Amino acid sequence: MSTGVKEEKTMPKGGSICFKLIIFFLLNISSFVVPVAGFSLKTCRISYETAICTKSKLRAVPHDIPSTVKGLDLSANQITKIQVSDFKQLSLLTQLDLNRNYISQIDTGAFANLISLKKLNLNNNRLVELGDNLFDGLSNLTELRIYRNRIKAVESTSFKSLKSLTFLDISDNKLHRLTKVHSILQHLPNLQDLLISNNDLTTFHSWELTNSSLELTSLDLSQNPIAVFRITADVFPNLTRLIIGSKKQKIIWDVRNKTFLSRVSTLDISGLQMADDIKTLLESFNSSLTSLRMNEMKNRLTALINISCTIPTVSTLQLRRNKLKFIHSNLFQLCINITELDLTDNQIQQIQDEAFRFLQGLRILSLSRNKLPSVPAATRNLPTLAELDLSRNNITSLECHDFANLTKLRHLSLYLNSISALKGCIFKDLIRLEVLKLQTNQIFKLNGAFKKYLTNLRQLHLNENKLTAINYGEFQGLKSLQNLSLHENQISELQNGCFIGLTSLTDIKLQSNNIKINGINKCFNDLINLRRLDLRDNHIKYSDSSALADPPFSHLSLLETLAIPAQHYRGKAQLPRNFLQGLTNLLEFNTRNIQLLSLHKDTFKYTPRLETLDISTNDLRDLSPDLFSPIQSLKSLYISATRLQSLDFFINANLTKLEFLQARKNQYSVISKDVIKSIPALVYVDLQSNSFTCDCDNAWFLQWAQNDNQTQVFGAYNFLCNYPPDFKDTKLFDLDVSSCIVDIDFICFISTTCTIILFMVVSFTYHFLRWQLAYAYYFFLALLFDKKHKNKQGPNQYDAFISYNTHDEPWIIRELLPKLEGEQGWRLCLHHRDFEPGRPIIDNITDAIYGSRKTICVISRRYLESEWCSREIQVASFRLFDEQKDVLILVFLEEIPTPLLSPYYRMRKLLKRQTYLSWPKAGEHTELFWEKLRQALKTRDDHGEDRFLLTVVNRP
């Protein structure tokens, strides 16, 4: 296994590539906040949450497996040792397959973190000893397979943690003694299936298993040289399936009480040799046995059958590999209760006509793998027969009476015979037949065998025969047929109407025939419910992309899968632009290897639901984004070996749902960031066998492929460079790209951290210091305007600037102006009268305040709610604090409660430090108010002058 980069080479910059990358980063820094990311495994691939690392010549468990996988397949490698750190991060793993390795050592605690594991396969390794607490941590394990190792010793605590285990296969090891099995069983309270075959056990004594709480329902002791099988206690109260048998040793059967095995329903004694009469053995199961397997019994088979058939509960009898070349008429005379009989692989050549006459309740009969030259007459007239298997015989022909009176037959297998032709009368009695298997024969003519009778047939297998044509109405009697297999024949002609009557057909296989264009013109029009159509490896070829007058699939509106690829194609081809017309529900289209030169942009406008598209191994060279615009639901795309020069068509193809992309063996050398970003849902991409340019053009792609996040880049560690010449055949992942790409992860960290801190500071400042910030802002403005006015060094233009709200303007006009300007002769500045039109409001305000000796703020509730009034009093107060002069006069037109002033922080501070006046209430005299206001206007504003208190009202 590769352990890392052997040699790093600095990636060439390719002129100003690095400079352009940096500029690109600076212009698009926001795009790095949530980077597009991918990952690549050195030796594995991820499929449906399973990491598949099989046949990768691994010598150790790879450490780059994502922690999110739920399955891990490490079978067929060269792993020798399992270490504590191997599965430390895989706490979500539910299945682990270590089959066919060289594992001889497992560290204690190696499985401790696999808390979710349900199935563990350690078959075919080299374990010799199972040490203390070996399976510690596997408290949820339900299935453990340790078949074919070299286990000789088992420590008493090895299986202590496996409280949930229900299935254990420890067959084909070297346990030798049942006491070692007992050390396993004592810790497995929920074990139901135990397989300990071929462990060289020589005795089986129930006392060796005492004190074990056994819930076993199935026990396999086969292939052990057990000389004595002795049960003296009820150690298997729930056992329903027992397999025991050996070709090496005769067994002494000693079961003291028939109730000890009273629940066993399935018994397999294949190959068993008894020292005593086998009747003694069978009597131990007499009240419960339903299924009996006696395969490879060397002698006295007739006696065994007679004994077995006298057990009234036995209904299933399996007699495989017993060399029964001849079945005589009395062999099954006592088997009146048998419903299932399996005579597979017995070299049977002849069966007497009356051999099965006693089996009047027979439902399933298997005569497969024998040497029968024809359908035996013994199988006729079995009124209850539902399944008949005559496959793998030497049958050459079928006659009209072969299946006479089998009116309840539902399943008939005749595959792998030498049948050459059918007859119209063969299936006349099979009125309930549902499945017919005739594949792998020599059939070249159907002769109307399917034009009637088989009205309930659902599956018909005629593949691997020698049919050359399908004639009109050949299957018209099969109105219930759903699956039809005609692949691997020699069919070159499909006549119009050849599938008439198949209105229920959903799946038809026609691959690997000689079908040409003219053979598919109208032959599918009758298959109105067809879902899947396979036409691979035929000779369907068009010379141009012109529209067809009669598109071949226009009537197949329910079709979901269509495949037309070729295996060996000569010459170039086109696809008619309306070839897929009518396929409005098509989900998968495969047109691999038909040597297409191009695809018209309207090819897929008829298939809006398409999800999987395979156009690999064609000579397309370029793909237009417009080709994909009608199929926005596409999830899987195969474009390998299409001679593509670039993948830039993705940028405008809008394939936002694409999850799987296979694009091997093409001619592009650069994968740009824009291409990857244009397919945001991508979870798997295979870009193997392309010639990559190893300069800064691929720097971003290299970094992206190495990150562990969403997209798996299959085989990326084997990508090779082709350019520049100095880097030819260098692995892309061996290159150092630090010289030409910004550390995006670091920038993301810094950017994110700064953004968060800035947000927190702004939020804190706004909440606690918003008034101080406002003060600072206006104080800054005041400084600016103060400097400007100081530079002018001119006299004040006005005696006072009046700051008021427009709602209080009537009081200003009727009361204030007549008194101050009319009677007292002061020069006043009012915004509605004296502001310069066209200037910014804030400029007019500041000029008016700094151009007046005093500022009079006429305060009311409306005044406090006004934004511009607030700014006027702020500027005036800033002048007050800046110049340290008494330039501000506050006049309250109405009584304002303290709670209403609480939000106006600056106003409250001014009231505590500054003079102010209150307009008298109704009925009170105003002479004192006007006199105090006159004195306030007259007071000089020199620093340190005594202030004149204008009111006796106390405010907070």
UniProtKB/TrEMBL annotation:
Keywords: Glycoprotein, Immunity, Inflammatory response, Innate immunity, Leucine-rich repeat, Membrane, Receptor, Repeat, Signal, Transmembrane, Transmembrane helix. Gene3D superfamilies: Ribonuclease Inhibitor (3.80.10.10), Toll/interleukin-1 receptor homology (TIR) domain (3.40.50.10140). It is found in: Membrane. One of its GO terms (biological process) is toll-like receptor signaling pathway. Signal peptide: none annotated. Residues 796-937 form the TIR domain. One of its GO terms (cellular component) is plasma membrane. The chain crosses the membrane at residues 21-41, 740-762. It holds the Pfam family TIR. It is a single-pass type I membrane protein. InterPro entries: Cys-rich_flank_reg_C, Leu-rich_rpt, Leu-rich_rpt_typical-subtyp, LRR_dom_sf, TIR_dom, Toll_tir_struct_dom_sf. The keyword Lipid metabolism does not apply. The keyword Repeat applies. GO terms for molecular function: signaling receptor activity. Belongs to the Toll-like receptor family. This is Toll-like receptor 22. It comes from Siniperca chuatsi (Mandarin fish).
